[in-house]
Amino acid sequence: MKSTRSSGMVPVLGALVAILVAFSPGCSGKDDPGSVGGTGGSGAAGGAGGTGGDAPKHCIVSDDCDADERCDQETKLCVPRCTADNQCPRHTGTYCDIPSGECVPAEHCQDDATCGSTKDFDYCSETGTCICIQDDSVPENMKGICWRVASTCQPCSADVECGNSGAFKGKEADCRVFRVGDETSPVCLPRENKGRCPPGMVAMDKTEFPELDGYCMPQSGDCATNKPCMSNDDCTEPSAPVCDLVRQICVAGCSVDFQASGATIGCPPDQVCHATTAGMKAENLERCETAGLFGIGECGMPCSDDSECKGRDPNFVCKSDGSMKRCRPAGCIDDSECEDLKDPNSMFLPWCDVATNTCVTDRCRAGFDPRLGCGTDKTYQDCASQMYKCTEVGTTGEGVCEEKNCIDLGGKEVGCFPGHFCDGEQYKSLLDGSKVDKVVSIPDATPGECVAMDVNLWCGATCQAHTDCANVGPNPEYKDSPSICMDQGIGPSCFWGCEYDQECPSSWKCSSQGLELYCSPDPDLRPNAHGLKTCTEDAECGPGNRCVEPMVNGEKTTMGLEPFKVCECSNTGVCGGNYSCNAGLGPMVKFKGFPGYEEVEHRYCVDSSPCGLKGGSCEWFGEVARDMEGLPVAPILRCGATPDDFAGSTEATCPAIDAVTGLPARRGKTASDRYACVYSQVCLPGYFWVDGEQVCGVQE
User: Fold this and answer.
1) What is the per-residue pLDDT across 297-324, written as a single tens digit (0 to 9) for each?
2) What's the pLDDT at 535?
3) pTM of this prediction?
4) Residue range 107-134: average pLDDT?
5) Is the distance from CB of 688 to CB of 507 less than 8 angstroms?
6) What are the distances in angstroms from CA 390 to CA 366, 368, 386, 402, 686?
7) Is 101 helix (H, G, I), strand (E, B) or coil?
8) What are phi and psi of 280, to 5 degrees?
9) DSSP line for 55-120
């Protein structure tokens, strides 16, 4: 867990990691108070120490040692200072004198109640948190010595050292293994008390520490950085910039909705969201990770004059952002506060420079707007027209408004008229829309320039057969997307093979529409057979098969046709006669994220012979043939295929050659045909109308 406040620790934790190395007891369990050891600190008061694994330094006095060490007078070596009584060795009659860091003779006791009663000792009476620890070195009339209860996150060896004793009614803390820096060690952890935790602590993260459910942990999730906050200055994490002074933990701040007349968000109805210095830092808006945190403040009662705000920040004033006044910078902090300065004759829209809290009316901000989140491709909207963009001048991040080119506008379809290419436009996959490492490159053109297509090439290549178009055109290297001869309403022409929309002129599409391999019988000859093995009862379908209503994309449907039933062969895979059990691609759900995605649950008996003798599958994907009045008359079946990333288990392949065209067949490459067999993929024309006639050409 990431810390939500500044580094550093309370004084007693100043050398916690080093102390744990020298004094930390062993641990053999988590439930029994004695299972974390029971022998007390293992480091002897006069034992050699040193830090970081280096050989201990020789010394005469403690000033010769590091700040977290003292000079042991018996060995004349630097050893770690103690910071808690339980770091002194058991049965030596000593406790920790924290100022010197040495283990010195402790007060003797008979039970917890007698601690603090001996005249010459005041450390227990000052704290009121001592317990009587059994010690074999004390006189026979005594039980042990007085130790102060270890604080939260301090090392321990038994629950009693953390205050789990009858002497401290209501103080529930135990010795448990928890994270300390890069390691885990036994430390004192308090229990939740009616859902509450001590200052600086929060409920245990049960996901990471399920065995510690019911305990409290430092907000940072690490005992090495346990530090209750005392003011907002202790809360340096932008997502939690406000110190809750009651719980002494850093919490998320409130905010103001400038689009709703300055309404406060995240405060009680009678309070306002006062700005904070940390929330007003302009650098928050320089990074998308922190941009959304700009303007976060803390709740409080409304202010009445500027003097009430100076304690929050010398530059803050008492100003109304809505119905109540709050402390905030005197100038602007949001673009909406500059709208009154909009000039209808200016190319620039006014915006707020939060670094100076002033409105800017003669410049624009270049680059992506981090306020919209990481990964955004949206730029600042500081230019008055959507047809203009901000071009940076110098290195200040600001610039001037200039007309957008076709790349800025999104490519040829948005930035150019029909029949053009956009030079420099990046290619995109037809399967998932992802960007491809390839751009449109037109000789003698400038990136962002619309370039008209060659009308003779795209509109004038007449033909009589597919062979007339073979091995020519813009992309002859696409062997599995060959150019073909088709008539799309203005006579037979060559349509050039493609793999990307960017290879086609604007308004034209790279598609396999109409180029699929069909396996439907002629609906005029067999209007009732549909190519599927139809039935009225199970007995017509063979042993183990059922007569069912067909499904398309996970739902029962006949797509407007008269209701009919087909033979399902999911459990047997056998149909008999001229029918074979298909792969079931048609009935399954083909949309990612939907329940049952690519789960083949229903397979039907179909004549799949047009789709290949081995692995071929004739499928109904929901298309229907219609009569002259537009009424559905029969389902249209196509040869199905499974893509490379198919999640199901039943696969289908395409025949090597399309029996109708004689062209090689393959699996589709676009989102719309990824489950289909096709024989090509070409640039389909986007004709436009002139004087009532379809025209293939360039529109200026």
Assistant:
1) 889 999 999 999 998 899 999 998 877 8
2) 93
3) 0.56
4) 86
5) yes
6) 5, 10, 11, 6, 33
7) coil
8) -100, 10
9) PPPB-SSGGGS-TTEEEETTTTEEEEPP-SGGGSBTTS-EEEETTTTEEEEPPEESSGGGTT-STT
